[in-house]
Task: structure prediction
Amino acid sequence: MCGRFTLAYRERERLAEELGVNVEQIPAAEYRPRYNIAPTDAHWIVRLRYEDRQVLPARWGLVNSWAKDAKRAAAQINARAETLASAHAFRDAFVKRRCAVPADGFFEWVGPSTGSGRGAGASRQPIWFHRSDGGLILFAGLYESWQPQPGQWQRTFTIVTTEPNAVVSPIHDRMPVILPDDVVDLWLDPREENEERLGSLLRPAAEDVLIATPVSPRVNSVKNDDAACLEPVDASGGQLDGGQARLL
Result:
């Protein structure tokens, strides 16, 4: 699964450039670097609109249009690639409302849990999976809109997961689908309805896309969302003086 992720870019201009959109689509007043994005948090999605990419605010945890409340949001932060076409909660969005979720990494944990909730145990070691160059990655996603109140619409999204590649598999049995640059627009294209073709895009990332870095246990609390969350640590949890610790 993917239960926390990051988008730590400090400049929205850099994000807009890498997404291929006008910077005005990412309002300065609403953008900030995120080091520990948690379920139900507000974030951004990218969709295709009249041949152009569009960046929109959305909340993580898909709430279906027919829902009377958001109780299922936290349970629908992820959608399994293998069952998108058949799962009642996701099948319509799979055909009609696909998106990409901008990020620059995601977390999984090792070690026993001593608390409630993913990553809650003080003894658990968070592992940050990210590109070695710190660059952008795009998760495959689905989005829906629902009405918390009559006439008030809220956009929500889920992140599609698949089997892990060799980098992630020692830590977890799922990973988010990371879209290669050359298939992003095909995934986003609302005119594409061939389920077999779309499903073929939902593969584990190539083994050279990500590295794994043990980082600060500050990540274990959703209350912490600052640059210190991504400080590399050694195997025993001590902070490193510089560089990145990698899992081998």
Remarks:
- The mean pLDDT is 91.
- The CA atoms of residues 41 and 59 lie 6 Å apart.
